[in-house]
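G., the chain you wanted modeled:
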Amino acid sequence: MTDNEVYYIAGLLEGEGSFYACKGGRYDSISPRIQMASKDREVVEKISLLTGRRVYGPYRQRTCDMYTWFVTGLKAVELMMLVKPLMSLRRQAQIEAAISDSNTVPRAKL
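Predicted structure as tokens:
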């Protein structure tokens, strides 16, 4: 991934992303997740292409179709740590909480 692609992802996630730990999977695991949703399919497809993760949707939300992208687990931690230095303090705190609240990944150096 080029520096410009990392900057693009960081900017997109700063404005449209969510960083959190989610329940799911086997054994009541809690995994870190990055997620974003947009009515602009092109934007979601671009982050999908850059990260190798798929686009979900369209889902009907009131008057428009929404598209969703997410990454969970170790891949989410890798991406979080890659963009963290470029994020606002609020987003950095969300990244730290998503990783520390999880029970499925080795503790990363925050």
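The helical segments are 3-16, 41-51, 74-83, 89-100.

Shout if anything looks off.
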